[in-house]
């Protein structure tokens, strides 16, 4: 996603976008996203410095870590990016690190791309152990039946 800085006024402004996941570098190995990414940006421009506060809404398909079924999970994510114009032609990286290890995204004064920051927000927003529901009973460790669907074969055989 590219923001044309010549069209971005000084002071506060907002931008809304709907983007396909691939346009910001999200691949199926990162996350399975259904539909577009809905992005709301609040920008505060002061000269060549731009502070971006973003809200991102998307629907991901994940595999439950207990029962291994796919389920859809809506994600509402917030992220922030501080951008400054690169003043040295020797800088080749798209991001700098200041003394406190806080990232500063650099731009050339014409175009600003925050694709990497959007992709990072999505990846960091995914659950490490996704659950289809809090009460998911998971799979039986003996017979492998999904215990959400009822008693497993082991329980039926013991009862029976």
How is this structure best described in words?
- The chain has 160 residues and is mostly beta strands.
- The chain has one domain.
- It is built from two helices and eight strands.
- It has helices at 115-125, 153-159, and strands at 2-4, 11-19, 32-46, 49-63, 70-85, 95-97, 103-107, 111-113.
- The strands form two sheets. A six-stranded mixed beta sheet has the order 2-3-4-5-7-6.
Summarize this structure briefly:
This protein has helices spanning 115-125, 153-159, and strands at 2-4, 11-19, 32-46, 49-63, 70-85, 95-97, 103-107, 111-113. With 160 residues, the chain is mostly beta strands.
Number of separate helices: 2
Number of domains: 1
- Helix/strand-derived class? mainly beta
Using the alpha-carbon principal axes, give the shape.
rod-shaped
Q: Report the average pLDDT across residues.
A: 86
Q: Low-confidence segments, ≥5 residues, pLDDT <50?
A: 92-101
Order of H and E elements: EEEEEEEEHH
Helix content: 10-25%
Provide the spatial order of strands within the biggest beta sheet.
2-3-4-5-7-6
Q: Name the beta content range.
A: 35-45%
Report how far apart the termini are. 61 Å
